[in-house]
Specification:
It contains twelve helices and 14 strands. By secondary structure, the chain is α/β, with parallel strands linked by helices. It folds into two domains: about 240 residues, Type I PLP-dependent aspartate aminotransferase-like (Major domain) (Aspartate Aminotransferase, domain 2, 3-Layer(aba) Sandwich); about 120 residues, Alpha-Beta Complex (Aspartate Aminotransferase, domain 1). The strands form four sheets. It has a seven-stranded mixed β-sheet, sandwiched between helices. A three-stranded antiparallel β-sheet has the order 12-13-14. The radius of gyration is 21 Å and the shape is globular. The two termini are about 25 Å apart. The structure holds pyridoxal-5'-phosphate.
């Protein structure tokens, strides 16, 4: 029987950096400093440098990064924030936890990204920000959002799935007011545990974020803001520093894989493949198909992992239904019914991709 093909193989990546990570881990363990120390400081500087951002502030997760961003912009009860309804729950969750109202908007059915015209239609005087999710690694239309929403609406970039992605040579996370990153292990730049960070060009905002992530404290036992405990630990920072040096190479490999998929999977009539665009870093390779159940069944029979990211529109979930818009969001609903993500990781081999094509052919999709 053939070997299973996973959707993601973190052990394959670990094998390529194992010695460096093990040495760094032992160094940190022996240092006696485990939270917010020299490794975190160095990682923040290296990340800011990589992005071309003036400031990077680390925290405990991507969800916290989004929550801290909303809090740092003084958004709360009575305010609204536009969020796409086709994404992971964290952006809506981060907004709702501040007491502000997440306003769910539709996405572009071709790009899967927040729909700019729909944002324009949803604009009210209460809208203080939009969370632009660079979904699956594809950069969201930041310039168009800015043009339609104006300067009064802050752009918070959700870069959880898009470390290294860029628009016209400028890295995502540096294009709006604040960029929010996740280092959950499965991300393009992933830690060996939870982690997150924020990027901004605004020194005052960076200072406030630093305080908010550490109990609102600006100096020891002095609390100027109501903060939370959301700090990156030294082990994760040391590991991220090592992986940061490889991110461009890993992202290039993902781009090559997407190009190969594009050739291999052309011509399956029920499938619409994602467009190859510059700056995309392919956190996921996600297509749509009207024959999803049959395709999943065949892939499973052939021991090929695949996932539905995302099966349910956010505004139809019990936790978020109270903020459901009055009119339907047709593109989100259709994508939830038709999307399918295939194996995508830098170490995916050509022969594994060939097996995936063979499986598509057997499924007769
Ligand atoms: C688009 C998006 N935003 C935010 C998050 C939250 O990140 P974390 O899991 O680090 O809290 C994730 C990931 O899990 C995500 O995919």
């Amino acid at each position: 029987m053939s070997e299973p093909i996973p959707i993601l193989d973190l052990t394959a990546q670990y094998a390529t950096v194992r010695e460096e990570i093990e040495a760094a881990t032992l160094r940190v363990l022996g240092s006696g400093r485990y939270v917010l120390g020299a490794e975190v400081e160095a990682f923040e500087a290296e990340m800011a440098d990589y992005l071309g951002a003036a400031h990077a502030v680390s925290c405990a997760s991507g969800t916290d990064a989004l929550h801290l961003a909303v809090r740092a912009l003084d958004i709360g009860p009575g305010d609204q924030v536009l969020v796409p309804a086709f994404t992971f729950a964290a952006p809506a969750e981060a907004v709702a936890l501040t007491g502000a109202e997440p306003v769910f908007v539709d996405v572009d059915p071709e790009t899967f990204l927040i729909d700019v015209q729909h944002c324009r239609n949803a604009l009210t005087p209460k809208v203080r920000a939009v969370i632009a999710v660079h979904l699956f690694g594809r950069p969201a239309p930041i310039d168009a959002l800015r043009e339609v929403l104006g300067d009064q609406v802050a752009i918070i970039e959700d870069c959880a799935q898009s470390f290294g992605s860029e628009i016209d040579g400028q890295r995502v996370g540096t294009l709006g007011a604040i960029g929010c990153f996740s280092f959950f292990p499965s991300k393009n730049l992933g830690a060996c545990g939870d982690g997150g960070a924020l990027a901004t060009r605004d020194a005052e905002l960076a200072q406030r974020l630093r305080a908010l992530r550490n109990h609102g404290s600006t100096e020891l036992y002095r609390y100027d803001h109501l903060g939370i405990n959301s700090r990156l630990d030294e082990l994760q920072a040391a590991i991220l520093r090592i992986k940061l040096a490889h991110i461009d190479d890993w992202n290039r490999k993902r781009q090559n894989i997407a190009e190969q998929y594009q050739e291999l999977l052309q011509g399956f009539a029920s499938c619409r493949l994602p467009e190859l665009v510059p700056g995309h870093v392919w956190h996921q390779y996600t297509l749509t198909t009207s024959k999803r159940d049959a395709l999943i069944a065949q892939l499973q029979a052939d021991r090929i992992d695949c996932r539905v990211y995302y099966p349910h529109p956010l505004h139809q979930q019990p936790a978020y239904a109270r903020w459901a818009p009055e009119h339907p969001l047709p593109a989100v609903e259709r994508l939830c019914a038709e999307c399918l993500s295939l194996p995508m990781f830098p170490e995916l081999k050509p022969e594994q991709m060939q097996r995936i094509q063979d499986s598509f052919a057997r499924a007769e999709v």
